[in-house]
Amino acid sequence: MNYEKLAALYFDRSAGSAVQEAFLKLLASFLGTGTAEFPYVRTVSIHPQVTEGRLFHVSIPEILEMAVDRNWGGTSAPLQESAAQDRFSNALQYIQNVRYRMHDESANLNFDYSRRQANYRRVDLDAADYRGRKMLIQFTDGTGWFTAKQLRLIDAQHLPLPNLQAIRQQVIRVRQAQAGKP
Fold this sequence. Notes:
Strand content: 25-35%
Number of domains: 2
Order of helices and strands: EHEEEEEEEEHHH
Largest sheet: 7 strands, antiparallel
């Protein structure tokens, strides 16, 4: 994700100005210049709900409707967490966007990404990980796979590599189910 020109940022009304300022500084710190433009920042009511630790619902009235399923409609998660190049975690789990609709005319956002793959992460990296060079994202080279330094970190942190074939098969199963095919 490119943080230099985010289309919109939404903060819950419960987040004070200090939290908002800290988050904006955090995002800007990901950039070489240490600065970023945030042209559209809104304070709204965000309504989150988690069911059975696998169904996540988030809504912003009249703007966002999101529901994701870690189990892809099944009784257990078909895809495990695996190594990933992310700014907040070294591991992601690929999950299903059951519903992901966004409509905010003021921010020029209008899309529906329902029934697509999404990423679930536990934010578990901190300043010590950054200073200790323990973040996979610190060694990204843009080639689309892991570098030798990243593979050493993955091994040291006992992270599984993404099973690309399993991910593809799960996406095919979901698409077939949507189309009513066996």
